[in-house]
């Protein structure tokens, strides 16, 4: 994954991606070009503090998540014209993604998958 932004707990700084009340959380606004997605480091932010292991998993999983989201654009499950949130799980991380009907952007939030209690 290119250039993970530094953790930003400054409440005045812009937060990118889907807004979630979960920390830590990596958010980004991906640029959609047809069925391709482009990551721009200046349109990404982290709130809270990821563990070293979670950062490593995020780095490993990010290209896989982008590919899955691109396949969802091809299949129509993600639609640039209609708001619809999809959720992916990989390497102990949860990724929520939605176009928010923006006609050109996919907003994501990636955070550690919460432990389930029985």
UniProtKB/TrEMBL annotation:
UniProt cross-references to Gene3D superfamilies, sorted A to Z: PAS domain
InterPro entries, per the entry: Antitoxin_CbeA (IPR009320), CbeA_sf (IPR038025)
Pfam families: CbeA_antitoxin
Domain of life according to the entry: Bacteria
One GO biological process term: positive regulation of cytoskeleton organization
Protein name (database record): Type IV toxin-antitoxin system YeeU family antitoxin
Organism of provenance: Serratia ureilytica
């Amino acid at each position: 994954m290119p250039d993970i932004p530094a953790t930003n707990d400054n409440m005045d700084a812009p937060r990118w991606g889907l807004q979630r009340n979960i920390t830590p959380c990596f958010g980004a606004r991906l640029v959609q070009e047809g069925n391709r997605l482009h990551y721009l480091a200046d349109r990404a932010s982290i709130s809270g503090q990821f563990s070293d292991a979670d950062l490593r998993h995020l780095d490993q999983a990010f290209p896989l998540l982008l590919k899955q989201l691109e396949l969802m654009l091809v299949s129509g499950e993600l639609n640039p014209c209609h708001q619809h949130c999809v959720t992916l799980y990989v390497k102990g991380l949860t990724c929520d993604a939605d176009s928010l009907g923006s006609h050109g952007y996919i907003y994501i939030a990636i955070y550690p998958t919460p432990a389930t209690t029985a």
